């Protein structure tokens, strides 16, 4: 269903962290989008967002959906994405839903089917696709500059802002990180972005995968806090995705480590964020590329507006892309957990 309106009237569900630094500023900055309504169960959070970004604030989802909106940004926690998206389908609203799409494969399928049945668009917030780095890697590979892509390495190691709330007495657990570990750990939280990038860059489906985990911090969570995912693609290419929450989590100086590389038959394109290096090596030359930012919410919303007016997905990740990335991340995490259960006697 196209949105044949001059201005797309959008509402947002879940006025938390990513809404505050990513979605709401981008919605406000995107031509063709008007922020009309906010839904947030926590009144204090809702009011804070409303004061900064405007819009009518609701704590009743029905009233929110009946507030004259065409589309919804779902930025609530992963376990409630399904409720938000099924309601959007019922009320006839297009959706841009944050990752991971759902907690189970069945939930993801229900969400996609409900939106398809209502002839509505469902996209997933894989915002890295719109970053300068990811876009230039995609273009470099698509132009054949590195020959046929045969391998990819995506290293995304950070600490999810640390295991503990450092600013509080007695080092209480960082609740954001605690919640993400219960929802599946770093491969499900961040790894879905890298799985999506690998499929997108190599333009080839994942045909099989294996996974190994490490429990660096100890045994308190079932999910590993450091993972190595190995994926084979239909093209014959192979991808390694390394994710971690535990790297330097107790260190005073926090260190993150991000590397993206695609290795082809005739060259390599590689980005190392820590070193600020981004270059392409081909048979004949070496070119330096511009790094730019990691995420690009404005780029994503510009594509959202375009997709709703043309009916074409363009660069946006679809609900199906969301299901695939989430399925691989969850099943791979289960593989690592099962290996550990066999290993420890
Ligand atoms: N794409 C990215 O780069 C990126 C970055 C961070 C988070 N995320 C994803 O965005 C989602 C939200 O993450 P966050 O860090 O902002 O979480 P958060 O906990 O900071 O914010 C979530 C908000 O949703 C509200 N909420 C709770 N139940 C709700 C419901 N039933 N309906 C609507 N809202 C509800 C909460 O009160 C809270 O204000 C998660 O799925 C997360 O994985 C994506």
Question: What can you see in these coordinates?
Answer:
By secondary structure, this protein is an alpha/beta fold. The chain has two domains: 8-128 and 299-314, NAD(P)-binding Rossmann-like Domain (Rossmann fold), CATH 3.40.50.720; 132-294 and 327-343, Dihydrodipicolinate Reductase, domain 2 (2-Layer Sandwich), CATH 3.30.360.10. 37% of the residues lie in helices and 24% in strands. The chain has eleven helices and 15 strands. The chain has helices at 17-29, 43-53, 61-65, 81-90, 105-117, 132-142, 175-182, 186-189, 191-202, 297-310, 319-343; strands at residues 8-13, 33-39, 56-58, 71-74, 94-97, 122-124, 149-157, 206-214, 226-233, 238-244, 257-264, 268-272, 277-281, 286-288, 317-318. The strands form two sheets. Strands 8-9-10-7-11-12-13-14 form an eight-stranded mixed sheet. The protein has a seven-stranded mixed sheet with strand order 3-2-1-4-5-6-15, sandwiched between helices. Helix 4 (81-90) packs parallel to helix 5 (105-117) and helix 5 (105-117) runs antiparallel to helix 11. The radius of gyration is 20 Å and the shape is globular. The structure holds nicotinamide-adenine-dinucleotide.
């Amino acid at each position: 269903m196209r949105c044949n309106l001059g201005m797309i009237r959008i509402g947002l569900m879940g006025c938390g962290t990513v809404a505050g630094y990513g979605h709401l500023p981008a919605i406000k900055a995107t031509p063709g989008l008007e922020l009309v309504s906010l839904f947030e169960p926590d009144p204090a959070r809702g009011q804070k967002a409303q004061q900064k970004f405007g819009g009518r604030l609701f704590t009743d989802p029905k009233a929110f959906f009946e507030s004259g909106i065409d589309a919804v940004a779902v930025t609530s926690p992963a376990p409630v994405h399904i409720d938000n998206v099924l309601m959007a389908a019922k009320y006839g609203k297009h959706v841009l839903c944050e990752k991971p799409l759902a907690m189970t494969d069945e939930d993801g399928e229900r969400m996609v089917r409900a939106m398809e049945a209502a002839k509505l668009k469902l996209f997933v917030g894989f915002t890295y696709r719109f970053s300068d780095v990811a876009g230039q890697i995609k273009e470099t590979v698509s132009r054949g500059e590195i020959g046929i892509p045969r391998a990819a390495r995506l290293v995304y190691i950070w600490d999810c802002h640390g295991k503990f709330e450092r600013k509080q007495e007695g080092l209480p657990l960082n609740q954001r990180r605690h919640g993400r570990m219960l929802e599946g750990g770093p491969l499900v939280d961040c790894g879905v972005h890298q799985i999506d990038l690998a499929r997108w860059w190599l333009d080839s489906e994942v045909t099989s995968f294996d996974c190994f985990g490490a429990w660096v911090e100890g045994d308190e969570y079932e999910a590993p806090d450091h993972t190595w995912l190995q994926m084979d693609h239909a093209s014959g290419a192979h991808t390694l995705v390394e994710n971690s929450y535990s790297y330097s989590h107790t260190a005073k100086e926090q260190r993150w480590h991000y590397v993206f590389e695609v290795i082809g038959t005739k060259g390599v394109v590689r980005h190392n964020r820590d070193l600020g290096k981004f270059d392409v090596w081909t048979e004949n030359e070496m070119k330096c590329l511009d790094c730019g930012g990691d995420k690009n919410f404005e780029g994503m919303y510009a594509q959202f507006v375009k997709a709703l007016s043309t009916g074409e997905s363009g660069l946006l990740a679809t609900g199906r892309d969301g299901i695939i990335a989430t399925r691989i991340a969850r099943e791979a995490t289960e593989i690592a957990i099962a290996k550990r259960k066999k290993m420890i006697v």
